[in-house]
């Protein structure tokens, strides 16, 4: 049986503390985001990242998305995301920051040129890294408490349907006694984040369609969002 911690039966801060500690110790934590449940691991710990690939049966050249906490001053005027992105991304285009300001925290993943300390294990050996800040309050609480980046692909085995409840995750990974699962109820969206590659600096390429549409994004930026087929 997996260790299941419920936000309903114990104070939520204790649940989050336990989960953040598990991440620090190189363990895996399944947690809700606004899209699907993610299978989280410390993005700066190679052996923790390796566990994600192993438990999911995911090919090791499939890059992972790094999840980051929103700055504390959220909701009080202009937010400075640059320090949040600094450990992960370099050469961040101005228009990419506009997308960040418009849609983060939220279901938008951006692909940047990667920072020098980003593990090859999470980028599939590429010179780029994918980053997002999820909008779900439990995801944010965990990221704040952990104080680091968390890779979090969907909490399902490779090729299976993405889970939208803690029960889905439990069923998927039955028998993995070390997995901490934070039960935050059902996910609102149920489909993965939109992914846009802004690493070239002068254009945005839609890598995966999602809840946030190119039309919505074009309202915020001057470079065009284009699909790979038209690039
Ligand atoms: P998920 O399976 O939801 O965790 O999303 C992972 C997907 O994000 C990958 O399959 C890629 O499509 C995309 N992705 C992650 N990292 C990168 C990267 N460095 N460059 C391009 N795409 C990436
Ligand atoms: Mg998936």
Question: Can you describe what's shown?
Answer:
The protein has 231 residues and is α/β, with parallel strands linked by helices. The protein is 28% helix and 21% strand. It contains 8 helices and 12 strands. The chain has helices at residues 12-24, 46-56, 82-85, 94-103, 120-123, 137-146, 166-172, 214-218, and strands at 3-6, 29-32, 37-42, 65-67, 89-90, 108-114, 128-132, 150-151, 180-183, 194-197, 204-208, 225-226. Strands 1, 2, 3, 4, 5, 6, 7, 8, 9, 10, 11 and 12 form a 12-stranded mixed sheet that branches. It is globular, with a radius of gyration of 17 Å. The mean pLDDT is 91. The structure holds adenosine monophosphate (AMP) and magnesium ion. The site of adenosine monophosphate has 17 residues, from β7, β10 and β11.
Largest sheet: 12 strands, mixed
Ranges where pLDDT stays below 50 over 5 or more residues in a row are none
Helix content: 25-40%
Count the helices. How many? 8
> What is the first-to-last residue Cα distance?
48 Å
Question: Strand share of the residues?
Answer: 15-25%
């Amino acid at each position: 049986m997996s260790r299941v911690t419920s936000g309903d039966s114990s104070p939520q801060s204790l649940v989050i503390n336990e989960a953040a500690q598990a991440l620090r110790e190189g363990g895996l934590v399944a947690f809700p985001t606004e899209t699907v449940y993610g299978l989280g691991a410390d993005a700066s710990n190679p052996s923790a990242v390796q566990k994600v690939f192993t438990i999911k049966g995911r090919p090791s050249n499939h890059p992972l998305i790094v999840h980051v906490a929103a700055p504390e001053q959220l909701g009080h005027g202009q937010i400075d995301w640059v320090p949040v992105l600094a450990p992960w991304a370099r050469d961040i285009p101005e228009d990419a920051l506009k997308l960040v300001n418009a849609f983060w925290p939220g279901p938008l993943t951006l692909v940047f040129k990667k920072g020098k300390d980003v593990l090859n294990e999470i980028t599939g050996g590429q010179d780029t890294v994918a980053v997002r800040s999820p909008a779900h309050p439990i995801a944010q609480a965990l990221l704040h408490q952990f104080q680091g980046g968390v890779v979090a692909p969907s909490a399902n085995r490779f090729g299976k349907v993405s889970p939208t409840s803690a029960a889905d995750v439990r069923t998927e990974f039955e028998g993995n006694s070390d997995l901490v699962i934070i039960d935050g109820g059902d996910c609102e969206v149920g489909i993965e984040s939109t992914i846009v590659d802004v690493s070239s600096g002068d254009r945005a390429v839609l890598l995966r369609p999602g809840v946030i549409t190119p039309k919505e994004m074009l309202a915020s930026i001057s470079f065009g969002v284009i699909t790979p087929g038209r690039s």
